[in-house]
Specification:
The chain is mainly α. The protein has one domain. A two-stranded antiparallel ribbon has the order 1-2. The longest helix is centred in the last third of the chain and has 29 residues. The radius of gyration is 18 Å and the shape is globular. The termini are far apart.
C-alpha cells in the first residue's frame, strides 16, 4: 500500500513538474505545485458541488429535524469533507513535503484549523452572494472558491506547513 501511495505521489509530482518550465519565471516550483494541486482540488470541489446541488439534492431544501438547510449550503456541507481530505493529502505529500520537521498530527490540527476558517468563509460568502445579492449558486461557489483559495494558500504556507527556521549556534 505504501508503495502505491508513493507511486501516486511521484506520478502527480511528475505530471505537475512537466508543465512547470513555461511558468518558472512567474512562480517558484512550490507555488506552482500549490496552484496545480489547489486548482485541481477546487475543480474537484466545484464538480462535486454541482453534482450534489443539481442531481443529488435537486436544488431542494434539506430538512433535518426542525432545521431547514438551503440546497447550496447543504451541497457545501456534503462536498467539503471530501475535498478536505484530498486537499490535505495533496498539500502534505505533493506541495509541502519539506515541512517534515513538524509532525503530521500538528500539521493535521493546523490544517483542520485553517479548514474551519475556510468553511466559515465558504458559508459567509455563499450566504452573502446567493441570499443577499441574489446571485446564482454555481457562479457564487466559483467566486467563493477563488477567495477562499487565496486565504488558504497564505495560511497553509505560513502556518500549517511552514518549514521551521533552523537556528544556528
Amino acid at each position: 500500500m505504501k508503495q502505491r501511495l508513493h507511486l501516486v505521489r511521484e506520478s502527480i509530482i511528475s505530471i505537475i513538474d512537466f508543465f512547470y518550465p513555461p511558468f518558472q519565471r512567474v512562480f517558484d516550483l512550490q507555488t506552482f505545485r500549490y496552484a496545480a494541486c489547489g486548482g485541481a482540488n477546487s475543480l474537484f470541489d466545484i464538480t462535486l458541488f454541482s453534482i450534489t446541488y443539481n442531481y443529488i439534492l435537486q436544488k431542494s431544501i434539506v430538512h433535518l429535524g426542525g432545521i431547514a438547510i438551503s440546497p447550496h449550503i447543504a451541497a457545501m456541507m456534503i462536498t467539503f469533507p471530501v475535498t478536505l481530505i484530498t486537499g490535505f493529502l495533496l498539500m502534505r505529500y505533493v506541495v509541502f513535503p519539506d515541512a517534515k520537521t513538524t509532525s503530521k498530527r500538528v500539521q493535521g490540527s493546523r490544517y483542520v484549523t485553517v479548514v474551519f476558517c475556510c468553511i466559515l468563509l465558504n458559508y459567509v460568502f455563499l450566504k452573502l452572494f446567493v441570499d443577499k445579492f441574489g446571485w446564482w449558486p454555481l457562479p457564487s461557489k466559483i467566486i467563493t472558491t477563488f477567495l477562499v483559495v487565496l486565504f488558504s494558500y497564505f495560511s497553509q504556507k505560513h502556518f500549517t506547513f511552514r518549514v521551521a527556521d533552523v537556528v544556528k549556534s
